[in-house]
Specification:
It is built from nine helices and twelve strands. With 262 residues, the chain is α/β, with parallel strands linked by helices. Helix 2 packs across helix 8. This is ABC transporter substrate-binding protein. Pfam families: SBP_bac_3.
Amino acid sequence: MRWIVGVIFFFLTSFALYGKPLRIITVVEPPASYLDSHGQLTGFSVEVVQAIQRSLDDKTVIEVLPEARAIHIARTEPNVVLFSFSRTPKREDEFYWLGQLSAKAWSVYALSSNPVHIESLEQLRKVQAIGVVRGDIREEWLTEQGFGNLHPSVNHQQNIHRLRSGRLDLIAYESQGIQHLLWEEGLETTDVKSVYNLKSSDVYLLMSKSGTNPKLMQRWKTAAEKFRRSGQQQFIAEKWQMILKHYHNINTEAVEGILYFK
C-alpha cells in the first residue's frame, strides 16, 4: 500500500512542478534516429538522448512521429523534447536549444540515369517536381526561397519510391540519409547522384518554449551540457563514426561529441 501512495505522490509532485507531462519525440531520420530490422529505435542521436535520460532518471518513452506533426507539437505544446532538428534563424526564438548533436549538408538528388544538370537555384526552380518531406527543414527552406515546384510526402522513403517511379524529377535530402535509405531499400549508392548542393545546418536536441516549465528546461539543458563535457557524447559519436564507415561507407568526423557529416 505504501508504494502505491509513493507512486501517486511522485506523479502529483511532478505535475505540480512541471505541469503537463514530458514528451520526447523524434522522427525517422537515419542515421540519427530510425527503426532497426527488429523495429527497435536506434541511431546516434537516440543513444545520446537515452543516455541523458538515464542521467536524469527519466523513464519517458521516446515517440516516433512524422516530421510535420512532431514539429507542430513542439511549437504548440509545453514540455516537449524534440530531436534531431536543424537550428535556423526562423526557428531560433521558437524553441529552447539544449545541445548540438550533428552537422549535415543538404543536396538535391536525381536518378543516375537522369541527364539533368543544375548549376543554380534558378535552374532548380524550373524543374517540374522536387520531392520533400512535409515539415522537414529542406521543405521549409526551399519554400522560403520561393520554390513552387515542391511535392511533399510523409517520409523520405516515399520520395525514393516516387523518384524511381518517375513521379519526381529530384528529391531534397542529405548524403548520409540517402545512403542509409538506399541500403534499406536494397539499392546501390550508384543508383542516385547528387546534382546540386543546397546548404548545411547544425542539428540539435531542443525543447518546446511556449508554456514549458523553465526549471524542467534548465534541468535538461544542464544534463545535456554535462553529458557532452564528460566525454560520453564523444564516445557515442566515435562509435557511430565507425559503424557508419564500416557498414555504409559514410564518412564523418566526431569532434567534442558532435558528429559532422562530410
